[in-house]
Amino acid sequence: MSAANYVAHFGLGAAPFVKEIGDIDLWLPPSKSGSIVEDSSGAADERENGLLVGEPGARQDVRAARTSPKAPGPRYRLTYNHNSTLGKRDFYRQLCVALGLTPSATAAAVFYAVSTHVQQLGQERVHPVFLLDEAHLLHPDTLDHLHILLNYEWDSRALLSLFLVGLTDLVDRLTLRRHRSLYSRISRRFVITPLTADDTADYLRFRLKLAGCERDLFADDAKGLLHEHAQGTLRDLDRLATAGLREAAKRKRKAVAAEDIDRVSLLVGSVGGGAS
Fold it and tell me: What is the extent of the structural domain holding 220?
């Protein structure tokens, strides 16, 4: 059954469990949102560095946490970098552009431009916060250099905060001897753990409401099976919930039953994650 058919059957305004969703509509698990958002905001206030990681199937959780901190005030300059596959020089050139600077030709000149700008912001009492997404893809040379970026007047005060966001593989890389100096400078470390059963139920309600549906389209036992089969990851939950809606619509049901989830779980499978 096509998306249009099951959307019309349940009177939805749109398909509820699609991947394409704006940052403003992202959801954070109730079991995690308070501590992660408060602690990440506190890290910037304390001029500390942070690390936020999650499993592949939890990437939407990670993205939501990354975009959910309290809006930085005038004392902060937030710079977001989503392309972490670059080499050291191109990484700093991209950082120059994000900071509104003109990139130079050589790696040394680019790094000097960034470091000088950071020092100028410190003199203006503005604290820069660099958020590097997909940080598990950072080139080893770039990782090697990040601890140097954090080295300004280290014994007296920190002139910038660095937040690394990525998959849990990033922790394995940072604990290697080569990157231990950088890892030791990251005082706030957060892990997005699998959803709880209550998180799953809240997420289903949230996404259905975004699609224009105020009623519960999943029976309680269907929610329990969804949580069990998805193993606490949003990607599998999205896929199974969509398949369940299609199955229930095909059978002319008003809500998704447990037998619908059992049936579709055999067809679409659930592996608790995958590539990000």
Answer: 3-26+195-268
